[in-house]
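re: ur question from yesterday

yeah so i grabbed the chain u mentioned. its 156 aa long if i counted rite. heres the sequnce exactly as i have it in my notes:
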Amino acid sequence: MFNPIGWIKPGTAHAHCDVPCGIYDPISAKIAAQTVQKMTLRLQTLERPDGSDAAAYQDYVNKVARYVAVKEEHAEVCKHELSVLWADYGWPNLPDGFDLHGTFNAALKLAGQCKQNVDMAKCEELVSTVDTIAGAFWTTKGESYSDPLAAARYGA
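ran it thru and got these structure tokens back, copy pasting raw so excuse formatting
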């Protein structure tokens, strides 16, 4: 049988980063961090039924499982987005006093701690650290950073 593709042997592609288009934005890490924070809030405010109502208890268990799964998934998304930004963006013109490696390392560790626990303080610290990274990132592009929609995005 003739395979028209079989004779084509593509070469190895080389790119300077995971995003060869050169478009970077820490907002995806921020949204993931806020999602972790929101799922933690939901877990902390979820009321456990007394157990006499089987349907209510099953609903409770289902919600806990879903909130934890989403929290874990978005903590990984945050870690991935930060890792790509850290490793692949060139970081020209870093602001004075910004500890690039220390700040990213702290953010990655915080995301892991948010997976391990249901700790709002760690979630708030993660969001804040991602904001610090975003501020430094936009400074390298000659822009100031603010996220005026953060509260609206996070919601009640």
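noticed a couple things. The two ends are 62 Å apart (CA to CA). also The chain has a mean pLDDT of 91.
anyway ttyl
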